Input
Amino acid sequence: MANFPAPPSPRTRVRRLPERGAYDRDTVYAILDAAFLCHVGFCSEQGPVVIPTAYGRRGDLVFLHGSAASHMLRSLERGVEVCLTVTLLDGLVLARSVFHHSMNYRSVMVFGRAEVVSEEAAKLAALEVITNQIAPGRWSEARPPDARELKATLVLALPLQEASAKIRTGPPKDEAADYGLPVWAGVIPARTQFAAPEPDPRLPAGIPASASALSRTSPRWQAARRTGSGRRAGTGALPRSRRK
Ligand SMILES: Cc1cc2nc3c(=O)[nH]c(=O)nc-3n(C[C@H](O)[C@H](O)[C@H](O)COP(=O)(O)OP(=O)(O)OC[C@H]3O[C@@H](n4cnc5c(N)ncnc54)[C@H](O)[C@@H]3O)c2cc1C
Output
C-alpha cells in the first residue's frame, strides 16, 4: 500500500487542527465499521456531485453497489477520482461564545479510484459485506441475488490506500476570559438508535423474529457503534485486476 496507514499523503495530511488527525488502520477502520452510510464525491460530466450511499468494508476495500444504470456507479466505473467520506456525529458542543461552538465527531476521508468487481463469487462476497454491515447477519437470512438481479447490480471496490480520520472529543474550548460568563456550556451527546423492528403486514404467521433485525437494537451494537469496536481489520480479497 502506498500511503496508508502512515505517513499521510500531501492531500490526506490534516492541516486545520492537525492534532485531531489520525492515519492508522485501526482508527480509520473502526470509524468505517461503525457506520454504513457514506458520501461519495466526484467530478461528473455535469460538474461536482456528492452522493449519499451505503457501503461495506472488508480488509483494505470499501465496497459500493447499486443499479447498473446508476450515474454515480457508471462514472466511478470509468475510473474517476473519488473522495468518500463517513461521518459519525457524537455530540453538539455548546461553548460560551458562538465562535467556539463545535461538534464532537469521528470522520474519515478516503481518496482513490474504484474498480469494478465483476467476478461472480467476488461480487456476491462484496454484496454480503455490504448487506451484513447494514444489518449484521442478514445475508444468511434473506434469499441471495439470482442471476438477473446480480446482472442488474454494479459493485465497485475502492482501495483503502489513502485515507485520513479526524476526531473531536470533549467539552468546549472557550476563550480564557469567557469561562466566567453566566452562559451554559457543555456537550449534548448524540446517538443513532434503532427502535423495535416493525414486522411487514404481509408477513405470514409463524416466521420467527430476525436475529439480524434484533441485533441492530441490541445494547451491544449500540455500544459498538459508539466506540467503533465492531469488527477487526482484516485483509480483503482484491478484484482480479488488482491482484497483480
Ligand atoms: C460533523 C462535522 C461537522 C463539522 N463542522 C464544521 C464546520 O461547521 N466548519 C468547519 O470549518 N469545519 C467543520 N468540520 C471540520 C471539517 O470536516 C474540516 O476538517 C475543516 O473544515 C477543515 O477543512 P480544510 O479543508 O481546511 O481541511 P484540511 O485540514 O486542509 O484538509 C486536509 C486533509 O485532511 C483530511 N481531513 C480534513 N478534514 C477531515 C475530516 N473531517 N475527516 C477526515 N479527514 C479530514 C483530508 O484528508 C483532507 O484532504 C466538521 C466536521 C464534522 C465531521
Helices lie at 25-33, 71-77, 120-134, 147-151, 211-215, 219-227. The first helix runs from residue 25 to 33. The CA atoms of residues 198 and 213 lie 10 Å apart.
